[in-house]
Specification:
This protein has 412 residues and is an alpha/beta fold. The chain has one domain (2-406): 3-Layer(bba) Sandwich (FAD/NAD(P)-binding domain), CATH 3.50.50. It has helices at 10-21, 40-43, 61-70, 83-95, 99-113, 116-124, 145-150, 152-160, 170-176, 199-212, 255-260, 322-334, 379-395, and strands spanning 2-6, 25-30, 47-48, 76-78, 133-134, 138-142, 166-169, 186-190, 194-196, 216-219, 222-228, 231-236, 239-243, 245-248, 267-278, 288-290, 295-300, 303-312, 342-353, 359-363, 366-373. Strands 4, 6, 7, 8, 15, 16, 17, 18 and 19 form a 9-stranded mixed sheet that branches. A 6-stranded mixed sheet has the order 10-2-1-14-21-20, with helices on one face. Helix 1 (10-21) packs parallel to helix 10 and helix 6 crosses helix 13. The mean pLDDT is 96. Bound molecules: flavin-adenine dinucleotide. Residues 7-12, 30-32, 39-41, 44-47, 49, 221-222, 249-253, 272-274, 307-308, 348, 350-351, 373, 375, 377-381 line the site of flavin-adenine dinucleotide. Keywords: Oxidoreductase. It comes from Paralimibaculum aggregatum. Residues 2-393 form the FAD dependent oxidoreductase domain.
Protein backbone atom coordinates (compact mmCIF):
# COMPACT_ATOMS: atom_id res chain seq x y z
CA UNK A 1 0.00 0.00 0.00
CA UNK A 2 1.00 3.64 -0.43
CA UNK A 3 0.90 5.23 3.01
CA UNK A 4 1.47 8.87 3.91
CA UNK A 5 2.55 9.60 7.47
CA UNK A 6 1.70 13.20 8.33
CA UNK A 7 4.15 14.59 10.89
CA UNK A 8 7.72 13.38 11.35
CA UNK A 9 8.41 13.76 15.06
CA UNK A 10 9.38 10.59 16.94
CA UNK A 11 5.80 9.25 16.62
CA UNK A 12 5.66 9.75 12.85
CA UNK A 13 9.19 8.46 12.24
CA UNK A 14 8.67 5.32 14.36
CA UNK A 15 5.33 4.65 12.65
CA UNK A 16 6.75 5.21 9.16
CA UNK A 17 9.64 2.83 9.88
CA UNK A 18 7.39 0.02 11.16
CA UNK A 19 5.12 0.47 8.14
CA UNK A 20 8.16 0.36 5.82
CA UNK A 21 9.29 -2.88 7.49
CA UNK A 22 5.85 -4.27 6.66
CA UNK A 23 6.62 -3.73 2.97
CA UNK A 24 4.56 -0.59 2.35
CA UNK A 25 5.57 2.36 0.18
CA UNK A 26 5.79 5.06 2.85
CA UNK A 27 6.11 8.82 2.53
CA UNK A 28 6.67 11.00 5.59
CA UNK A 29 5.43 14.57 5.24
CA UNK A 30 6.49 17.40 7.52
CA UNK A 31 7.19 21.12 7.22
CA UNK A 32 10.52 20.65 9.01
CA UNK A 33 13.20 17.93 9.06
CA UNK A 34 13.06 15.22 11.75
CA UNK A 35 15.41 16.18 14.58
CA UNK A 36 14.67 19.91 14.16
CA UNK A 37 14.55 21.87 17.47
CA UNK A 38 10.98 22.97 16.67
CA UNK A 39 9.78 19.41 17.23
CA UNK A 40 8.62 18.42 20.70
CA UNK A 41 10.61 15.27 20.07
CA UNK A 42 13.83 17.30 20.06
CA UNK A 43 13.89 18.80 23.52
CA UNK A 44 12.29 16.33 25.89
CA UNK A 45 13.97 14.80 28.94
CA UNK A 46 14.84 11.62 27.02
CA UNK A 47 13.38 9.31 29.65
CA UNK A 48 11.96 5.95 28.58
CA UNK A 49 9.55 6.09 31.46
CA UNK A 50 8.45 2.47 31.83
CA UNK A 51 7.11 3.42 35.29
CA UNK A 52 4.81 6.20 34.06
CA UNK A 53 1.38 4.82 34.92
CA UNK A 54 0.14 7.82 36.91
CA UNK A 55 -1.69 10.50 34.89
CA UNK A 56 -1.28 14.18 35.76
CA UNK A 57 -4.85 14.80 37.01
CA UNK A 58 -5.32 12.86 40.24
CA UNK A 59 -7.80 13.38 43.10
CA UNK A 60 -6.99 16.64 44.88
CA UNK A 61 -5.25 18.34 41.94
CA UNK A 62 -8.08 20.85 41.52
CA UNK A 63 -7.69 21.98 45.14
CA UNK A 64 -3.90 22.27 44.81
CA UNK A 65 -3.82 24.00 41.39
CA UNK A 66 -4.39 27.64 42.55
CA UNK A 67 -1.55 27.33 45.09
CA UNK A 68 0.72 25.79 42.44
CA UNK A 69 -0.01 28.69 40.08
CA UNK A 70 0.82 31.33 42.69
CA UNK A 71 3.96 29.61 44.02
CA UNK A 72 7.02 30.65 41.94
CA UNK A 73 8.50 27.19 42.69
CA UNK A 74 5.28 25.42 41.67
CA UNK A 75 5.45 23.34 38.47
CA UNK A 76 2.35 24.85 36.86
CA UNK A 77 2.24 28.05 34.78
CA UNK A 78 -0.53 29.81 32.94
CA UNK A 79 -0.70 32.67 30.46
CA UNK A 80 -3.76 34.30 32.02
CA UNK A 81 -4.93 35.78 28.71
CA UNK A 82 -5.24 32.19 27.45
CA UNK A 83 -7.56 31.08 30.27
CA UNK A 84 -10.88 31.69 28.44
CA UNK A 85 -9.72 29.47 25.55
CA UNK A 86 -8.32 26.86 27.92
CA UNK A 87 -11.30 26.53 30.26
CA UNK A 88 -13.42 24.00 28.32
CA UNK A 89 -10.40 21.69 27.89
CA UNK A 90 -9.20 22.23 31.48
CA UNK A 91 -12.62 21.41 32.95
CA UNK A 92 -12.72 18.09 31.10
CA UNK A 93 -9.06 17.35 31.92
CA UNK A 94 -9.63 17.84 35.65
CA UNK A 95 -12.83 15.76 35.54
CA UNK A 96 -10.67 12.74 34.64
CA UNK A 97 -8.90 13.12 38.01
CA UNK A 98 -11.59 11.05 39.81
CA UNK A 99 -10.16 7.92 41.42
CA UNK A 100 -12.01 5.41 39.22
CA UNK A 101 -10.91 7.31 36.10
CA UNK A 102 -7.31 7.52 37.27
CA UNK A 103 -7.28 3.74 37.84
CA UNK A 104 -8.73 3.08 34.36
CA UNK A 105 -6.26 5.48 32.69
CA UNK A 106 -3.38 3.99 34.67
CA UNK A 107 -4.14 0.47 33.40
CA UNK A 108 -4.12 1.72 29.80
CA UNK A 109 -0.90 3.67 30.31
CA UNK A 110 0.68 0.51 31.72
CA UNK A 111 -0.17 -1.43 28.57
CA UNK A 112 1.55 1.28 26.53
CA UNK A 113 4.69 1.98 28.56
CA UNK A 114 5.76 -1.07 30.58
CA UNK A 115 7.83 -2.65 27.79
CA UNK A 116 8.99 0.63 26.27
CA UNK A 117 12.74 0.07 26.63
CA UNK A 118 12.48 -3.22 24.77
CA UNK A 119 10.24 -1.56 22.13
CA UNK A 120 12.89 1.13 21.56
CA UNK A 121 15.67 -1.41 21.28
CA UNK A 122 13.71 -3.38 18.69
CA UNK A 123 12.96 -0.29 16.65
CA UNK A 124 16.51 1.06 16.81
CA UNK A 125 18.48 -2.18 16.35
CA UNK A 126 20.70 -1.98 13.29
CA UNK A 127 19.65 1.59 12.43
CA UNK A 128 22.52 3.54 14.01
CA UNK A 129 20.04 5.14 16.44
CA UNK A 130 20.72 2.47 19.08
CA UNK A 131 23.87 4.30 20.17
CA UNK A 132 21.60 6.97 21.71
CA UNK A 133 19.76 4.49 23.96
CA UNK A 134 21.15 4.27 27.48
CA UNK A 135 20.13 2.16 30.43
CA UNK A 136 20.12 5.13 32.78
CA UNK A 137 17.80 4.11 35.57
CA UNK A 138 15.14 6.65 36.38
CA UNK A 139 15.34 7.91 39.96
CA UNK A 140 12.65 9.93 41.74
CA UNK A 141 14.28 12.26 44.29
CA UNK A 142 12.34 13.28 47.40
CA UNK A 143 13.24 15.56 50.31
CA UNK A 144 12.68 12.63 52.70
CA UNK A 145 11.00 9.26 53.13
CA UNK A 146 7.78 10.90 54.34
CA UNK A 147 7.43 12.72 50.99
CA UNK A 148 7.70 9.40 49.15
CA UNK A 149 5.20 7.73 51.47
CA UNK A 150 2.79 10.64 50.95
CA UNK A 151 2.38 9.66 47.28
CA UNK A 152 0.15 6.75 48.31
CA UNK A 153 -1.85 6.65 45.10
CA UNK A 154 1.20 6.80 42.80
CA UNK A 155 2.99 4.10 44.79
CA UNK A 156 -0.10 1.90 44.76
CA UNK A 157 -0.71 2.27 41.00
CA UNK A 158 2.92 1.47 40.22
CA UNK A 159 2.82 -1.54 42.50
CA UNK A 160 -0.41 -2.81 40.93
CA UNK A 161 1.19 -2.48 37.50
CA UNK A 162 4.04 -4.74 38.68
CA UNK A 163 6.65 -1.95 38.52
CA UNK A 164 9.62 -2.67 40.71
CA UNK A 165 11.52 0.05 42.54
CA UNK A 166 14.41 0.21 44.93
CA UNK A 167 14.45 2.86 47.65
CA UNK A 168 17.62 4.67 48.71
CA UNK A 169 18.37 6.70 51.80
CA UNK A 170 20.63 9.77 51.80
CA UNK A 171 23.77 7.72 52.49
CA UNK A 172 23.13 5.41 49.53
CA UNK A 173 22.22 8.37 47.33
CA UNK A 174 25.36 10.35 48.07
CA UNK A 175 27.52 7.25 47.67
CA UNK A 176 26.31 7.14 44.04
CA UNK A 177 26.20 10.91 43.55
CA UNK A 178 28.43 12.81 46.01
CA UNK A 179 27.52 16.26 44.68
CA UNK A 180 23.82 15.89 45.51
CA UNK A 181 22.45 18.87 47.47
CA UNK A 182 21.22 18.50 51.06
CA UNK A 183 17.55 19.02 50.11
CA UNK A 184 17.27 15.48 48.77
CA UNK A 185 17.35 12.75 51.37
CA UNK A 186 15.42 9.86 49.82
CA UNK A 187 14.88 8.27 46.41
CA UNK A 188 13.10 5.52 44.49
CA UNK A 189 14.94 4.04 41.52
CA UNK A 190 13.14 2.31 38.65
CA UNK A 191 15.56 -0.10 37.04
CA UNK A 192 13.31 -1.21 34.18
CA UNK A 193 13.41 2.26 32.61
CA UNK A 194 15.98 3.63 30.19
CA UNK A 195 16.96 6.86 28.50
CA UNK A 196 17.71 8.43 25.15
CA UNK A 197 20.86 10.48 25.40
CA UNK A 198 20.03 12.91 22.57
CA UNK A 199 16.35 12.77 21.55
CA UNK A 200 16.79 15.03 18.49
CA UNK A 201 19.73 13.00 17.16
CA UNK A 202 17.83 9.78 17.90
CA UNK A 203 14.83 10.87 15.79
CA UNK A 204 17.19 12.05 13.03
CA UNK A 205 19.12 8.74 13.05
CA UNK A 206 15.93 6.67 12.80
CA UNK A 207 14.78 8.93 9.97
CA UNK A 208 18.13 8.59 8.13
CA UNK A 209 17.78 4.80 8.33
CA UNK A 210 14.20 5.00 7.00
CA UNK A 211 15.39 7.03 3.99
CA UNK A 212 18.40 4.73 3.34
CA UNK A 213 16.04 1.76 3.25
CA UNK A 214 13.77 3.34 0.63
CA UNK A 215 11.32 5.49 2.65
CA UNK A 216 10.51 8.91 1.22
CA UNK A 217 10.24 12.38 2.73
CA UNK A 218 8.36 15.41 1.49
CA UNK A 219 9.04 18.73 3.17
CA UNK A 220 5.70 20.51 3.02
CA UNK A 221 2.95 22.01 5.13
CA UNK A 222 0.06 19.55 5.36
CA UNK A 223 -3.11 21.49 4.62
CA UNK A 224 -5.77 18.80 4.44
CA UNK A 225 -6.50 15.08 4.45
CA UNK A 226 -9.82 13.59 3.40
CA UNK A 227 -11.32 10.25 2.35
CA UNK A 228 -11.22 9.67 -1.41
CA UNK A 229 -12.89 6.53 -2.72
CA UNK A 230 -11.18 3.52 -1.11
CA UNK A 231 -8.17 5.66 -0.15
CA UNK A 232 -7.31 9.18 0.96
CA UNK A 233 -6.30 12.48 -0.61
CA UNK A 234 -3.78 14.71 1.12
CA UNK A 235 -3.09 18.33 0.25
CA UNK A 236 0.43 19.40 1.20
CA UNK A 237 2.45 22.36 -0.05
CA UNK A 238 -0.35 23.12 -2.54
CA UNK A 239 -0.18 19.64 -4.14
CA UNK A 240 -2.75 16.86 -4.05
CA UNK A 241 -1.25 13.50 -3.02
CA UNK A 242 -3.25 10.29 -3.38
CA UNK A 243 -2.55 7.41 -0.99
CA UNK A 244 -4.21 4.22 0.20
CA UNK A 245 -3.88 5.19 3.86
CA UNK A 246 -2.73 8.19 5.90
CA UNK A 247 -1.52 8.37 9.49
CA UNK A 248 -2.11 11.63 11.36
CA UNK A 249 0.90 12.05 13.67
CA UNK A 250 1.30 15.81 13.95
CA UNK A 251 1.64 15.89 17.75
CA UNK A 252 0.06 18.93 19.40
CA UNK A 253 -0.89 20.27 15.96
CA UNK A 254 -3.10 17.27 15.08
CA UNK A 255 -6.37 18.67 16.46
CA UNK A 256 -7.37 20.84 13.48
CA UNK A 257 -7.19 18.04 10.90
CA UNK A 258 -8.80 15.53 13.26
CA UNK A 259 -11.72 17.89 13.72
CA UNK A 260 -12.03 18.52 9.97
CA UNK A 261 -12.45 14.76 9.66
CA UNK A 262 -15.36 14.96 12.11
CA UNK A 263 -13.65 13.78 15.30
CA UNK A 264 -13.06 15.82 18.45
CA UNK A 265 -9.41 15.50 19.48
CA UNK A 266 -9.74 16.89 23.03
CA UNK A 267 -6.24 18.26 22.48
CA UNK A 268 -4.27 21.06 24.12
CA UNK A 269 -0.61 21.96 24.11
CA UNK A 270 0.90 21.33 27.53
CA UNK A 271 3.92 23.53 27.07
CA UNK A 272 7.17 22.36 28.66
CA UNK A 273 10.68 23.78 28.95
CA UNK A 274 14.25 22.69 28.99
CA UNK A 275 17.39 24.38 30.19
CA UNK A 276 20.49 22.75 28.76
CA UNK A 277 23.76 23.25 30.64
CA UNK A 278 26.83 22.65 28.49
CA UNK A 279 30.00 21.13 29.91
CA UNK A 280 28.74 20.92 33.48
CA UNK A 281 31.29 20.20 36.20
CA UNK A 282 29.23 17.17 37.28
CA UNK A 283 26.59 14.84 35.80
CA UNK A 284 23.94 12.70 37.53
CA UNK A 285 24.47 8.93 37.25
CA UNK A 286 21.11 8.62 35.44
CA UNK A 287 17.98 10.72 34.91
CA UNK A 288 16.39 12.17 38.04
CA UNK A 289 12.87 13.40 38.62
CA UNK A 290 12.95 16.22 41.16
CA UNK A 291 9.54 15.34 42.55
CA UNK A 292 9.21 18.58 44.49
CA UNK A 293 9.75 20.65 41.30
CA UNK A 294 8.19 18.26 38.70
CA UNK A 295 11.29 18.71 36.63
CA UNK A 296 13.71 16.08 35.31
CA UNK A 297 17.50 16.39 35.37
CA UNK A 298 18.85 14.21 32.58
CA UNK A 299 22.44 13.48 31.61
CA UNK A 300 22.68 13.95 27.83
CA UNK A 301 25.33 13.86 25.14
CA UNK A 302 25.22 17.69 25.00
CA UNK A 303 25.28 18.32 28.75
CA UNK A 304 22.86 18.32 31.66
CA UNK A 305 19.23 18.93 30.69
CA UNK A 306 16.63 20.22 33.14
CA UNK A 307 13.32 19.44 31.46
CA UNK A 308 9.69 19.48 32.45
CA UNK A 309 7.08 21.81 34.00
CA UNK A 310 3.71 22.55 32.49
CA UNK A 311 2.50 25.84 31.10
CA UNK A 312 -0.80 26.55 29.39
CA UNK A 313 -0.60 29.26 26.76
CA UNK A 314 -1.35 27.67 23.39
CA UNK A 315 0.75 26.88 20.35
CA UNK A 316 1.43 30.41 19.13
CA UNK A 317 2.92 32.30 22.11
CA UNK A 318 6.68 32.46 22.61
CA UNK A 319 8.48 31.26 25.77
CA UNK A 320 7.87 32.77 29.21
CA UNK A 321 10.71 33.64 31.58
CA UNK A 322 9.35 32.15 34.83
CA UNK A 323 9.69 28.40 33.98
CA UNK A 324 13.36 28.81 33.05
CA UNK A 325 13.99 30.82 36.23
CA UNK A 326 12.49 27.93 38.22
CA UNK A 327 14.76 25.46 36.42
CA UNK A 328 17.81 27.58 37.29
CA UNK A 329 16.83 27.46 40.98
CA UNK A 330 16.19 23.72 40.66
CA UNK A 331 19.77 23.13 39.42
CA UNK A 332 21.14 24.96 42.42
CA UNK A 333 19.01 22.85 44.74
CA UNK A 334 20.16 19.65 43.03
CA UNK A 335 23.86 20.52 42.77
CA UNK A 336 24.75 23.62 44.82
CA UNK A 337 28.35 23.62 43.56
CA UNK A 338 27.68 22.99 39.86
CA UNK A 339 29.42 25.12 37.23
CA UNK A 340 28.89 25.03 33.47
CA UNK A 341 30.10 26.80 30.35
CA UNK A 342 27.09 27.63 28.20
CA UNK A 343 23.35 27.11 28.17
CA UNK A 344 20.29 27.09 25.94
CA UNK A 345 16.59 27.36 26.62
CA UNK A 346 13.85 25.47 24.76
CA UNK A 347 10.04 25.42 24.71
CA UNK A 348 8.06 22.44 23.37
CA UNK A 349 4.43 21.42 23.02
CA UNK A 350 3.25 18.17 24.60
CA UNK A 351 0.21 16.78 22.78
CA UNK A 352 -2.16 16.33 25.71
CA UNK A 353 -5.70 14.97 25.48
CA UNK A 354 -8.34 15.54 28.15
CA UNK A 355 -8.05 11.94 29.38
CA UNK A 356 -4.23 11.69 29.21
CA UNK A 357 -4.48 8.83 26.70
CA UNK A 358 -3.39 8.94 23.07
CA UNK A 359 -5.74 8.67 20.09
CA UNK A 360 -4.75 5.44 18.41
CA UNK A 361 -6.48 3.81 15.51
CA UNK A 362 -8.74 4.14 12.53
CA UNK A 363 -10.97 7.21 12.27
CA UNK A 364 -14.56 5.90 12.04
CA UNK A 365 -15.64 8.88 9.93
CA UNK A 366 -12.61 8.63 7.60
CA UNK A 367 -11.64 4.95 7.52
CA UNK A 368 -8.49 5.44 5.42
CA UNK A 369 -7.01 7.70 8.09
CA UNK A 370 -5.39 6.42 11.30
CA UNK A 371 -4.74 8.69 14.27
CA UNK A 372 -1.46 8.43 16.19
CA UNK A 373 -1.15 11.43 18.49
CA UNK A 374 -1.77 12.60 22.02
CA UNK A 375 0.90 10.80 24.04
CA UNK A 376 1.23 13.88 26.32
CA UNK A 377 4.26 13.58 28.65
CA UNK A 378 5.16 10.16 27.24
CA UNK A 379 5.44 10.53 23.48
CA UNK A 380 9.06 9.43 23.33
CA UNK A 381 8.42 6.46 25.61
CA UNK A 382 5.39 5.30 23.62
CA UNK A 383 6.52 6.04 20.04
CA UNK A 384 7.85 2.61 18.94
CA UNK A 385 4.83 0.77 20.33
CA UNK A 386 2.49 3.32 18.77
CA UNK A 387 4.17 2.69 15.42
CA UNK A 388 3.87 -1.08 15.76
CA UNK A 389 0.22 -0.90 16.78
CA UNK A 390 -0.66 1.32 13.82
CA UNK A 391 1.25 -1.00 11.47
CA UNK A 392 -0.65 -3.97 12.94
CA UNK A 393 -3.99 -2.26 12.44
CA UNK A 394 -3.23 -1.30 8.84
CA UNK A 395 -2.07 -4.87 8.13
CA UNK A 396 -5.24 -6.26 9.70
CA UNK A 397 -3.28 -8.01 12.49
CA UNK A 398 -5.30 -7.76 15.69
CA UNK A 399 -3.24 -5.79 18.26
CA UNK A 400 -2.30 -7.85 21.29
CA UNK A 401 -3.66 -5.24 23.72
CA UNK A 402 -7.15 -3.86 24.17
CA UNK A 403 -7.06 -0.32 22.80
CA UNK A 404 -10.70 0.56 23.45
CA UNK A 405 -9.70 3.36 25.85
CA UNK A 406 -7.60 4.97 23.10
CA UNK A 407 -10.18 4.69 20.32
CA UNK A 408 -10.73 7.55 17.91
CA UNK A 409 -14.15 9.14 18.34
CA UNK A 410 -14.33 8.70 22.13
CA UNK A 411 -14.80 12.46 22.63
CA UNK A 412 -17.36 12.96 19.83
C1 LIG B 1 9.84 19.51 28.50
C2 LIG B 1 9.37 18.18 27.97
C3 LIG B 1 9.92 17.01 28.48
C4 LIG B 1 9.48 15.77 28.02
N1 LIG B 1 10.09 14.64 28.48
C5 LIG B 1 9.70 13.44 28.01
C6 LIG B 1 10.37 12.27 28.42
O1 LIG B 1 11.33 12.31 29.17
N2 LIG B 1 9.91 11.06 27.96
C7 LIG B 1 8.86 10.98 27.10
O2 LIG B 1 8.46 9.88 26.73
N3 LIG B 1 8.25 12.10 26.63
C8 LIG B 1 8.63 13.32 27.06
N4 LIG B 1 8.03 14.45 26.62
C9 LIG B 1 6.89 14.33 25.68
C10 LIG B 1 7.38 14.04 24.26
O3 LIG B 1 8.44 14.89 23.93
C11 LIG B 1 6.23 14.24 23.26
O4 LIG B 1 5.08 13.52 23.70
C12 LIG B 1 6.64 13.71 21.90
O5 LIG B 1 7.83 14.33 21.46
C13 LIG B 1 5.55 13.96 20.86
O6 LIG B 1 6.06 13.48 19.64
P1 LIG B 1 5.26 13.66 18.32
O7 LIG B 1 6.02 13.02 17.21
O8 LIG B 1 3.86 13.18 18.54
O9 LIG B 1 5.17 15.26 18.13
P2 LIG B 1 6.29 16.29 17.61
O10 LIG B 1 7.65 15.88 17.96
O11 LIG B 1 5.86 17.65 18.08
O12 LIG B 1 6.16 16.20 16.05
C14 LIG B 1 5.03 16.69 15.38
C15 LIG B 1 5.47 17.02 13.97
O13 LIG B 1 4.31 17.40 13.20
C16 LIG B 1 4.71 18.43 12.33
N5 LIG B 1 3.54 19.18 11.89
C17 LIG B 1 2.59 19.73 12.67
N6 LIG B 1 1.67 20.35 11.89
C18 LIG B 1 2.08 20.18 10.60
C19 LIG B 1 1.56 20.60 9.35
N7 LIG B 1 0.39 21.26 9.26
N8 LIG B 1 2.23 20.27 8.22
C20 LIG B 1 3.40 19.57 8.31
N9 LIG B 1 3.94 19.14 9.46
C21 LIG B 1 3.27 19.46 10.60
C22 LIG B 1 5.64 19.28 13.17
O14 LIG B 1 6.47 20.09 12.33
C23 LIG B 1 6.42 18.22 13.92
O15 LIG B 1 7.60 17.86 13.25
C24 LIG B 1 8.45 15.71 27.05
C25 LIG B 1 7.91 16.89 26.53
C26 LIG B 1 8.37 18.12 26.98
C27 LIG B 1 7.80 19.36 26.38
Amino acid sequence: MRIAVLGAGITGVATAEWLRRDGHEVELIDRIEPGDPRQTSFGNAGILAANAVVPVPVPGLLAKAPRMLLDPDGPLFLRWSYLPRLLPWLTRFLAHGRLAEVERISRMLGALVLDSVDQHRRLAEGTGAERHIGDGHYTFLYPDRAAWEKDKLGNRLRQEAGIRCETLDRAALTAADPELGPDYGFAATFRDSGNVTDPGAYTAALFAHFIREGGRFRRAEVEDVRPDGEGVMIRAGGEEIAADRAVLAMGAWSGRLAERLGHRAGMESERGYHLMLENPSHMPPGPYMLTDRKCAASPMEGGLRLAGLAEFGGLAAGPSAAPTALQRRAVRRLYPRLTWEGESVWLGHRPSTVDSLPMLGQAPKAPGVYFAFGAQHLGLTMAPKTGRLIADMIAGRPPNIDLADCRVGRFD
